[in-house]
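Please describe the entry underneath.
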Amino acid sequence: MLSQRILVLIFFSILTIACGKNKDKSKELIRANEIHLASMQIHENIEEYLEAKKQEATKNKDSVSIYKLDSLGKILELWEEGVVEVPGFEHEHHHEKGGLHEHKTGVQMTDESMLEYQKSSKQAIEELQKEIKSKF
């Protein structure tokens, strides 16, 4: 009986600690991370879209489209190289090639600057998405 109480106490202690993690983060950092995650989802969608279009172009032996898709893929890679994670929210991404990828985390910015950076980064990936979808 005593060991069950100890286990329950430990469980609730861990739960309290886990739930309290975001309480010490500013609302700007929390919002910056939400924007970052949305940007990464758009990135993933673009990767999948480009891959499907490239398979279609390869099947149709459309070398011009393949070249354009490869170029757009390189632009997407450049965007990804510039991605900076929000401090305290580090995470990993799995890519279709099976590789594990981690983004830069050591950038020192104010919370407000991080939020503005994430907004700009999302705007850039959204513009790239529009450009790709308008061409293909």
DSSP finds four helices and two strands in the chain. Strands lie at 92-94, 100-102.
